[in-house]
Each structure stands twice: as structure tokens, then as C-alpha cells.
Design brief:
By secondary structure, this protein is of the alpha+beta class. The chain has two domains: 227 residues, Naphthalene 1,2-dioxygenase Alpha Subunit, Chain A, domain 1 (Alpha-Beta Complex); 97 residues, Rieske [2Fe-2S] iron-sulphur domain (Rieske Iron-sulfur Protein), CATH 2.102.10. The protein contains eight helices and 17 strands. The chain has a seven-stranded antiparallel beta sheet, with no helix packed on it. Strand 6 and strand 7 form a beta hairpin. Helix 3 runs antiparallel to helix 8. The longest helix is centred in the C-terminal third of the chain and has 25 residues. The radius of gyration is 22 Å and the shape is globular. It starts with 33 loop residues before the first helix and ends with a helix.
């Protein structure tokens, strides 16, 4: 995975991590126990804002996508007024999934394949054969169960918790860090999906340090040496709990982008100042988004747990409209660089998955370069303990 900042925080910088020189890692069962994953899904993936997709995926009325979230299937659709809705993909009659396709265009309604109960684009039940004589049955009370949806940066986000804080209330501080960049105007340039035989937390941990970069990623370490940059956000802050963590790394020499040769001729993302142009910003947005902003493109990973020992990683690259619409547009220099880096990361994450299941391994020690890893682990384990 893309390595976030590994260098120790500079003296006096705020906020401070929960790392101590005596800190120890969680025990191995947290990465392989089905009961732990079940609680993580309930507490994290079903109660926090999740980055689902790009608004461009639903450009017109009746366009829809379905997405697995843990054990749930969620349907997203755009209605005739341009609003994106989210629903549990479950018929109110006998519990059958209403939509079987992963995506589609121009639907007028959604018809359950079992008994033809029919739902409008806004989730209302509009047809239920042979129910007129039923007592205490009003179609208005049997629409699809809704899921909260909000948008930021050109992405749409979902929260399965019916009540709770808004997207901005939870992540407004993160959004403010990147408000100078027109992220909503960027266009998809490439997408890859990976099946990784590792627990979702091992992937986040790997993203959150560059301690491994010199031996595992020599190409990456050449462009952004592993001791460059700084951490500037933690899950544990002094006055309140944050939902994002990360910082930046700095280019060596005169390199300008994370590509095969370290250079780019593509237009830079508007808003990039001289400081930004020498950095790559890496943040974990809890629980499922890995956000990596480069001078000329935004790369993201969406992290989806499938089982205690398996995860799906959606990797997407977004560029300026000018770049994507150019006849010379070719994202392969960035995509191939990160595909190689991803594959290197998946391998070591899978090795860690195997090793942490050993009966002999009951936890380990963090290095001084793993402050963000320690902070993430403490955030997760404390949440699990606090909400027992």
C-alpha cells in the first residue's frame, strides 16, 4: 500500500500521537478472529461515513450501483431531481435482494425478482400485488430502508447509522485541509481492484508507515526517502478524537511526481503551491479510505473487509479534466508505478497475516518509525473495548 509518513513528529508539533517507547502491538487474534471482525463491522463500517464512489458514476436519472458493505448489500441511485439516495438492497416483503446487478443506467423503478414488489428511485413502494385487502398495510410505510448519503470532493459517502453526525461534522477538519484543491472537478483516469489475503487492519497499518519502504519499495524510496516528511494528524488528539490520520512525504532532488521516472508532464492540480509541489499527502480516513494526493493526481484506495483474513482494495486515479481529455493522456507511468508498489505491499501484508496467526506470536514492539501504526491500533482496540 502507499506508505504514509514515517518520520517522528517534530518537537512541539501538535497534536501528539499515543506512541510511547514501551508501546506493544495487539495480539494476533485481532487479525484473524471472526468475532472481532463482526464487531469491527458493526462499530466501524456500519456506524461511520464510508467513501463509496464517485458522483460521476451516477450521472443521470435512474443510474444505480450496488455495493457490498460487510454482510450488507447497499443500493445507490440518482432520482429525477438529481439527488443520490442509498438503500438497503432488501425487499420489504420476504427479504430478497431487489437489484442483482452491480450497476445500471436509466432505471425507471426497481422490481423485486421474487414477487414483483416495485420501488421508485426514491425508495417508495409503488407496487405490491395482491395486498389491497390486507389489514394495517400502507405502501407508504414499506419503502426500502434508507441509508444516509452525503457528498464531498466529487465522492458520495454513506453511513448506515440512521441517526448521527453529518459528514462535515465528522470529517470537516480533514476536508478543510484540501479545500484549496478542486477535487470535485477531477476525472477518473484509471482503476484497479485487488484481492488481498490479509486483514483490513494490516493494510491500514502498512499504509501508515514507511519503515518498510527502503527494503520493500526501493523505487518509491528513491523518489521520497523514507525519513522525509512529517506526521501532522492523529486519531488521538489532545482535546478530541479525530477520524483521520497522516501527513506528507517530500520529493528528493528535482522529482515532481510518483511515476516510473519521478517526473510528470501532466497539468498540476489547481491550487498546488510551491510547497505542495514538493510533497505527497497521505491520509487514512477512518475506516475505509486511503487518500493520497500528488501534485498531478489524486490516488485513493477503498479498503473493504471480506473476511478476517481477506480484503478487497479498490484503487483509483483521478487527474485534471485537461489531462484526461488530452489526446496524449496516458496514466500508465503513475498506474504502473503504484501497481508495482501495491503488489509489494500486498505480499508483505499477506506474510504478516500468516505470521500473526502463529500460536507463538502474542504481539510485538513498534519501532520509532511507527507512531501512526501505534496510534491506529490503539484507536481500534480502545473503541472495541469501550463499546463492549
Amino acid at each position: 500500500m502507499p506508505p504514509a509518513v514515517s518520520a517522528p513528529t517534530r518537537p512541539g508539533s501538535e497534536p501528539e500521537p499515543t506512541f510511547h517507547l514501551s508501546s506493544t502491538t495487539p495480539e494476533g487474534r485481532i487479525y484473524s478472529d471472526p468475532s472481532v471482525l463482526a464487531r469491527e463491522l458493526e462499530l466501524f463500517y456500519y456506524r461511520h461515513w464510508l467513501c463509496i464512489g464517485r458522483e460521476d458514476e451516477l450521472p443521470g436519472k435512474g443510474d444505480f450501483v450496488t455495493r457490498p458493505v460487510g454482510t450488507e448489500s447497499i443500493l445507490f441511485t440518482r432520482d429525477g431531481h438529481g439527488k443520490i439516495h442509498g438503500f438497503y438492497n432488501v425487499c420489504r416483503h420476504r427479504g430478497t435482494p431487489v437489484v442483482l446487478e452491480r450497476e445500471g443506467k436509466g432505471a425507471h423503478s426497481f422490481v423485486c425478482p421474487y414477487h414483483s414488489w416495485t420501488y421508485a428511485l426514491d425508495g417508495r413502494l409503488t407496487g405490491a400485488p395482491h395486498t389491497k385487502a390486507l389489514e394495517n398495510f400502507d405502501k407508504a410505510n414499506y419503502g426500502l430502508w434508507p441509508v444516509r448519503v452525503e457528498t464531498w470532493g466529487g465522492f458520495f459517502w454513506a453511513n448506515l447509522e440512521p441517526e448521527g453526525r453529518s459528514l462535515t461534522a465528522d470529517l470537516g477538519d480533514f476536508f478543510a485541509r484540501f479545500s484549496r484543491f478542486p477535487l470535485a472537478e477531477l476525472k477518473l483516469g484509471a482503476r484497479k481492484t485487488y484481492q488481498v489475503e490479509a486483514n483490513w487492519k494490516l493494510i491500514v497499518e502498512n499504509y501508515s508507515e514507511c519503515y518498510h519502504c527502503a527494503p520493500i519499495h526501493p523505487q518509491l524510496n528513491r523518489l521520497t526517502p523514507y525519513l522525509s516528511g512529517d506526521n501532522d494528524a492523529y486519531f488521538h488528539e489532545k482535546d478530541r478524537r479525530s477520524l483521520f490520520s497522516g501527513g506528507f512525504m517530500e520529493f528528493a532532488k528535482d522529482y515532481t511526481s510518483m511515476t516510473r521516472d519521478g517526473y510528470t508532464k501532466r497539468p498540476l492540480i489547481p491550487g498546488m503551491n510551491e510547497v505542495d509541489r514538493k510533497r505527497v499527502y497521505y491520509y487514512v480516513v477512518f475506516p475505509n479510505l486511503l487518500f493520497s494526493l500528488h501534485p498531478d493526481y489524486l490516488m485513493i484506495h477503498r479498503n473493504w473487509p471480506v473476511s478476517p483474513t481477506r480484503s478487497v482494495e479498490e484503487n483509483e486515479f483521478y487527474f485534471t479534466r485537461e489531462a484526461v481529455e488530452s489526446k496524449e493522456f496516458d496514466p500508465s507511468d503513475a498506474v504502473e508505478f503504484w501497481d508495482q508498489t501495491n503488489q509489494q505491499d500486498w505480499k508483505v501484508c499477506e506474510l504478516a497475516q500468516v505470521g500473526t496467526q502463529s500460536r507463538a506470536w502474542r504481539g510485538g514492539r513498534y519501532s520509532e518509525q511507527e507512531t501512526l501504526v501505534c496510534d491506529f491500533d490503539k484507536f481500534v482496540t480502545e473503541e472495541l473495548d469501550r463499546k463492549r
